[in-house]
Amino acid sequence: MEEIGETHESADGGVLSPFHEHPLYPTKDSSTPCVGCDGDETAGKCSCHICEIYVHKDCLEIINPSNPTYHLSLTDRYGKLFRCSICTSISYRYIYLCSFSGLPVCEKCARKPFTIDPGRAHEHPLLVFLKGSFSFPCDACGVNDAKSCLCLCIPCRFTIHRKCVYLPRVICINRHDHRISHVPRLGSGNWSCGVCRKEVNGMHGAFSCLTCTFAVHSRCAIRSNVWDGIELEGVPEEDPAKNLPFKVVGEGLIKHFTHEHNLRLINEDDILYDKSKQCHGCVLPIFFNACYICTHCDFILHETCANLSKKKRHPSVSRQLTLYAKHYYGMDSFSWDGPFSCFVCSQRCSGFAYVEDNGGRPGFTIDVRCVSIYAGFVHNSQPHSMLVISDDWSVSDRNKCSRCGKGGNDVWCLTGREDLFMCYKCATIPELAMHKYDVHLLSLRFSENAIGDYWCDICEKIVDPHKWFYTCDMCSTTLHIDCVLGAEPYLRVGSTFKLGRFVLEVLSNDYASRPRCDTCSSRIEDIVVYKSEDVYFCSLTCIEKNPRRAR
Ligand SMILES: [Zn+2]
Ligand SMILES: [Zn+2]
Ligand SMILES: [Zn+2]
Ligand SMILES: [Zn+2]
Ligand SMILES: [Zn+2]
Ligand SMILES: [Zn+2]
Ligand SMILES: [Zn+2]
Ligand SMILES: [Zn+2]
Fold first, then answer.
1. Does 234 have pLDDT greater than 90?
2. Ligand 4 center to 222 CA (angstroms)
3. Residue 294 falls within a domain, yes or no?
4. In whole angstroms, what is the distance from residue 89 CA to residue 275 CA?
5. 16 and 91 share a domain?
6. pLDDT given for residue 318 in this prediction
7. Which end of the chain lies in a sparser environment, N or C, as judged by fewer CB atoms within 10 Å?
8. Mean pLDDT of the chain
9. Greater pLDDT, 307 or 550
10. Which residues crowd ion ligand 2, with CB under 5 Å?
11. Domain extent for 393
12. Are 85 and 58 in contact (CB under 8 A)?
């Protein structure tokens, strides 16, 4: 709080005030405005002979008309910007500080009763009480904190935080697919917040879904990492049909927006496993899932991937994401057409991507496997808890994936397990996989209370049974995850992309004698090779390092 001294007269007739270190003397100069009110009337004007500061004597301290206990003293804070606690306008350097709360108030607000236009929050003007006066739960957000300014309509007993007066009315947040709107009261019931998961008191204002049962604390809903800042009141809702990814063109026949030919539905019972078939959307094998196959070419999508909505919300980004099937990025000196790097799992992928619309430029990009992980998701490794987003931002540095050690913001917490975290890469390791070592399907195991040693049948190195690994129940094989999936599990075999002057094809490494990498000359060990005309590469790194890459 600001120490308020007394204004008094110096021996030579100057004014000494806490506002300025030197005495101020009466002046008739009208060319420089008063730093308090910006006016140029000469009556009562003083100036400092050393600093060229002009100010009206009456502008040094203002007693607010609505409350004589509010003394507002002009203060000089060189280099600082202030936001008025009443009208939120910004001032530079000179501001009035309230003797009671220490809060900044602009000159215009200091001179009139502290009232504001209630906007859509209430039907009468609201009286503003600077902080510290008293505390009541806010009718709009339910929070009772003495630290925030409160506004009151006394006849109505309506109390609202200054910062809650202009809460948005209808918004979309990244934790829910429907619009939510602010309601003065949720009503009775056991409400839990869709963002912080804590209880929401139904007697106060909150956001609730217009379509289903979903509630969010007013303050949780407008966090910058939850809400994109767009008010949707009065904005007509998008026609949901616009976001449908395909049109039905016949019985079991669709036209998907990502492909030029019609696709035919193949049901689960009709699927014959073909290990070369990978979904063009998620890049995972089709296995026994229903899928849509192209009537003309090798394009294929899981039924679930064909149904992915063109628009999505994701907890890692506040703006809406749009589904794309092709990617193009200009990167430094080479262009990259095809695989992209998923922002949350950091793995390269040649399938579909959800991309944040960042003013025409591609922003945040996430693959469709990672999009399928949501708050409340139950991962089979932890069947008794749910993946949730940490509400405590301060611990996000400490959150490290319990399996791989990856840290950062995109790591999930597990309910009831304060010691466990899971990253997107680990959460999306396929539960089923194939490898030419074993003719059967391999399944992901999360831990085994085993005595004795396990060995990976591919690399012949030890497998830790307490960690995740693949196994075949028929053959009792144990295999490292990395050995089964290879270095780039989400680059589809058969896909092509351009890197510099190379047009590369991703091929299975099924050669009788393993080809040599053109860059590092070693025999290629990975489960795929990258082929460009008659040369082979072992990895994307070796393609990038190749001297002939540049055009
Ligand atoms: Zn003035
Ligand atoms: Zn509030
Ligand atoms: Zn009222
Ligand atoms: Zn909340
Ligand atoms: Zn798929
Ligand atoms: Zn990903
Ligand atoms: Zn991990
Ligand atoms: Zn291995």
1. yes
2. 10
3. no
4. 64
5. yes
6. 87
7. C
8. 87
9. 307
10. 138, 140-141, 161, 164
11. 387-427
12. no
Ligand at minimal distance from the CA of 354 is 6
Distance 493 CA to ligand 5 centre (A): 14
Q: 533 C-alpha vs ligand 4 centroid, how far in Å?
A: 56
Q: Which ligand is nearest to the CA of 406?
A: 7
Is residue 181 in some structural domain?
yes
**DSSP class of residue 492?**
P
**Cα torsion 436, 439, 444, 448: sign:** negative
Number of residues assigned to the chain: 551
Q: How far apart are CA 498 and CA 313, in angstroms?
A: 30
Is the pLDDT higher at 500 or at 546?
546
Residue 398 falls within a domain, yes or no? yes
Q: How far is the CA of 429 from the centre of ligand 7 (A)?
A: 9
Tens digits of per-residue pLDDT, 436-449? Answer: 888 888 999 997 77
- Ligand 4 midpoint to CA 255 (Å): 41
| Contact yes or no for 468/485 (Cβ under 8 A) | no
Q: Which is more confidently placed, 182 or 22?
A: 182
Has residue 174 got a pLDDT over 70? Answer: yes
Our count of domains for the chain comes to: 5
Q: Give yes or no: residues 68 and 21 share one domain.
A: yes
Ordered DSSP codes for 243-296: G-SEEEEETTEEEETT-SSEEEEE-GGG----TT-B-TTT-SB-TTS-EEEESS
Say which CATH number the domain at 481 has.
3.30.60
